[in-house]
Structure formats: C-alpha cells, structure tokens
Write a structure and sequence with these properties.
The protein has 250 residues and is an alpha/beta fold. It has 8 helices and 10 strands. Helix 2 links the parallel strand 2 (32-36) and strand 3. The two termini are 33 Å apart.
Amino acid sequence: MKTYAVGDIHGRLDLLMLALEKIEAHARGEVARLIFLGDYIDRGEESRAVVSVLKELEQSPNVHCLLGNHEEMMLVAIRGRDPRDLNRWINSGGDETVRSYGGRGLGDLSDLDVLPEEHAAWFESLPTLISDHNRIYVHAGLMPRVPAIDQDDEIKLWIRERFLRAKNLKAFPDGKHIVHGHTPQWKGKPDADQPELLDHRTNLDTGAYATGALTVGVFDFERPGGPTELLVARIQATHLDPTSPATLID
C-alpha cells in the first residue's frame, strides 16, 4: 500500500482538487492511504470548501486528517470567545476563513457565529499524530529526545526551531522518519516551492497559499525513509511574495 501525505493546504481548494486528481491517477485503482498534515484553513479564500471536502473524504477508513495549529487557533477562538484569541487567529489568516463562511473577518466576536459547530466538532476529533512501523506523520514536528508517545499536543502543533535544528534520527528515540508540514523553507533551495527532503524528515509545506504549489509525498508502506516520488499540484502563485518574512508566521 502506498501512503500519500499532503502538505499544508491553507484554503486553496483549487490545489486540493488538483492534488486529489493526481493522487487518483497515480494510484491507478489500487488501495492507498491518504494523510493530510493539517492547516486546511486560513490565508486562502476557500477554507470552508476545503474543510467540507476533507470532512467528506475522511469518512473513508483510508483517509486520515491531522489537526494543524491553524485549526487549533480557530477552536480556541470559538470555544473561549476571548477577543485576544480571536485577534491572534484573525491576524494569522483567519480573516479569510471567516469570510469564506460568510462573516466579515474584522475581528469582531460576532464573526464566530458564522462558523458551523459541525466543523468545529470535526476539528476537535482530529488526531495530532499518526504513525506506522516506518514513519511518523505530524503537523509541526517533535521535540528531540522525547518519545512520540510522550509528546504534548502543543509541541506537535507548534514546534519549530528545536525540531528543525535536529540533524539526524539519533535525536528521536522512535527512530522513524518524520513527515511534517507547518514551516515552509525558502532558503537553500533553487525554488521556494520545493519540499525539504532530509534523511530523517520530510517537510511537505511548500507554502501553497503563496507559491501556488501543493506538494504530495508518496511513501511506500514497506520501505523506510523519505518519499519514493513527489506529486505537485501547481496552478499559479498569488500576489504574495514567498520570500517575504510575512509569509513565515505560524
């Protein structure tokens, strides 16, 4: 069985649908597992539609959606109704999500009323990590020197530097290749929309909302390590500059 891991979508319904077409064509009718790495909402214009598609897909036992930090920010705002949490989410791209649900996206608590409970409840049901005998799939990463089973959700959703600085698998007690998103990397690559492929981890966040490229890693269930192939759904870049520091927040 092949596993198709999909990077951060961020409201790009057009790229999601193209990626699904590419996965279907590549699988050629064989049973496959799909893992979505989180961050389905914010920044792109069609977050509501993306969530609806993924929620429907996940009814299949072979489709798994992980929680991302952007979904967590939305949940915190909905459940707590604290203006500070709402503004934090809105300023991280939540304004586009609210507008996709029919709200104004101006940081007013009344905007939370347009967000359907069924979508919030679905986010709450999502796991923060999936593993098999060769790999760990997680949104942001793992704390070095801590077994996966002991990792806090906050780490799995938000970690950056301590995880990214780890040089090899020796830093991770589970000894498994880690597949993640969360942190698009622009430096050190010939093209900003290329994934980060290392011996101990694969970073599939290629900044789809900014670069117009959504990356899918194809993994052989029986073969350890990184992807055997990459599928790229590419349409067009937005007006955002992928090299700008503003695109690297959260």
